[in-house]
Design brief:
Blueprint lengths: L6 H12 L6 E3 L4 H8 L4 E3 L13 E3 L8 H9 L3 E3 H10 L2 E6 L4 H14 L5 E8 L9 E4 L5 E5 L14 E4 L13 H14 L5 E4 L4 H4 L9 E3 L13 H17 L5 H10 L8 E5 L5 E5 L4 H14 L4 E6 L4 H6 L1 H8 L4 E4 L15 H8 L6 E3 L3 H11 L4 E6 L5 H7 L2
Parallel strand pairs: 1-2, 3-4, 5-8, 5-9, 6-8, 9-10, 10-11, 13-17, 14-15, 14-17, 15-16
Antiparallel strand pairs: 6-7, 12-13
């Protein structure tokens, strides 16, 4: 598995190993996920600069972040080893199981984790592949992004990017919400709706679609669906450990999906599991305090809607605190295409510190930067800085934040490292 440290790839690696396959792989750097794989007996070689393919390899699975020119993919072709992308391989697993696919722009990870917790608590023994390390999935201590269970019941987090969702064969499809994102692939909301429309139409008549059918964007993808539709917004949920109305909506979707899969499931099981759900890595994760007493949290929010919702939830939870958001923009295309929405959302914090844009798979065209984002935010909130390194951000936070402050590192890149560096 090339790119085995990816959050989806590493979960698939654990699934394949649990099913008796011999699995190993490579990744460009060490991470909490590669450490997790090593703890579970999956060997990981760091670096793609040399070929690490055993001669008896039967299949090479590659992350979407790994190009065709990668030396291991090139060598695999020379050796006659078949290849599959991550989502192609996950789709092959999905075909042999009753699959519950959790999709949507926001909330997929938390909803999938909550759903798996409910069904595990109800002794349904689900297998789950989730896009973060869920603290409820153990061993090892600290959780996992994979829950081992029956081979014929699969919960999977399903991403719409590059139509990956369409590689799966769900019997139950959860659509949490639909909002324009991944603008490097989807030019507009209509293109995004087209992908979800195809996904909804593929759910069989004896399956179920769990969503909010009264949302106008979602309603536009359900017109030709054969499967019955369950409105998850009607579910009641208990008090959660997770903050914010968006997490209560995630819980409603998880509860509705669990009861769609097992209609006899009693609310005492669903609600107790939701009450006990501990959450996952990088989803409103408490990291500690700075030496000066500032609280430090980390969150994966990287879309304007999620950024705004997280800040609102933080204010609700800590009304007496001054909120500093340390935001790591993810992708030039997303920052450029949703620029105005990012400006409005980030300006709702008391103070904003911007890290350089995390390029990921993109090249800098020079038409957007954290500096230009800071200039625009300053028109609404002058308490904004654009700093050009994590070291500079860490020093600024340690120098300026005190016990009245709440610091939230935020974004889909590796900004969590700053939170870990400043928190005790």
């Amino acid at each position: 598995m090339v790119g085995i440290g990816g959050i989806g790839m590493s979960a698939l690696a654990q699934l394949l190993k649990a099913r008796g396959k011999r699995v190993g792989g490579t990744d460009r750097e060490e991470s909490p996920v590669t450490t997790l794989l090593s703890q579970k007996g999956v060997p990981v070689v760091i670096g793609h600069d040399q070929c690490n393919i055993p001669a008896d390899t039967g299949l090479l699975i590659y992350s979407d972040a790994v190009p065709e020119s990668n030396v291991e993919r090139v060598r695999a072709k020379e050796m006659g080893i078949p290849e599959m992308s991550y989502f192609e391989a996950l789709g092959a697993v999905s075909k042999d199981a009753r699959t519950i696919a959790v999709s949507g722009t926001h909330g997929k990870t938390t909803t999938a984790g909550m759903l798996a917790k409910i069904l595990q608590f109800a002794e349904k023994e689900p297998t789950a592949v989730v896009g973060s390390i869920v603290r409820d999935f153990s061993p090892p201590a600290g959780g996992s992004n994979f829950l081992s269970g029956r081979s014929d019941l699969l919960i999977v987090e399903a991403c719409e990017y590059r139509d990956h969702l369409l590689k799966l064969s769900p019997d139950i499809l959860v659509i949490t919400n639909i909002e324009l994102d991944h603008t490097d692939y989807f030019p507009d909301i209509e293109a995004l709706q087209k992908t979800f429309r195809k996904a909804a139409e593929r759910v069989p008549a004896d399956g179920v679609i769990v969503t909010n059918p009264y949302d106008p964007v979602i309603a536009g993808v359900l017109g030709n669906a054969k499967a019955p539709i369950i409105d998850y917004t009607t579910q009641t949920v208990p008090q959660l450990k997770q903050i914010g109305e968006f997490n209560r909506m995630n819980a409603r979707a998880a509860k509705a999906a669990a009861r769609a899969a097992f209609p006899h499931l009693q609310e005492e099981y669903t609600d107790r599991a939701l009450m006990d759900f501990k959450g996952s890595w990088r989803r409103w994760e408490y990291k500690g305090e700075t030496p000066q007493g500032a609280l430090v949290y980390d969150d994966y929010a990287h879309h304007p809607t999620a950024v705004r919702a997280t800040i609102e939830a933080a204010r609700e939870e800590f009304p007496e605190k001054e909120i500093t958001v340390v935001f790591h923009p993810h992708l030039y295309s997303r920052t450029r295409d949703l620029f105005g929405a990012f400006v409005d959302a980030l300006a709702t914090a008391d103070r904003i510190i911007l890290a350089p844009i995390y390029a990921a798979r993109e090249e800098d065209r020079g038409d957007v930067s954290s500096d230009t984002l800071a200039e625009a935010i300053a028109k609404n909130n002058e308490n904004v800085l654009s700093l050009h390194s994590f070291d500079a951000i860490r020093e600024e936070l340690l120098d300026s934040a005190g016990d009245r402050d709440l610091i939230i590192t935020m974004g889909a890149g590796d900004i969590y490292k700053v939170a870990e560096q400043i928190a005790d």
